[in-house]
Amino acid sequence: MLLNARSISISIAVLSFFAIAAVGWFSDLSPLTCCKRSLLAAVIVYISTSIAVKAISAILMDAMVDRQMNQQKEASNGNGN
Hints:
Elements: H1 5-26, H2 31-80
Helix pairs in contact: 1-2
């Protein structure tokens, strides 16, 4: 894969965990409620980010392969003339 989906997803999930926890803390929620909501949000963000990064990586890889094939096709057509 072009992009490392696991490391990107983990980084964004950790950031979202602390962001949601901070929002819950400033909203005067109990620590257990903050923890549950933050953990659930982090899992959802991890899964969705992982899917998104894999899709972006696949699109980029496909574009790179198409460009390389077009370059090789143009080079072979140029040599035939």
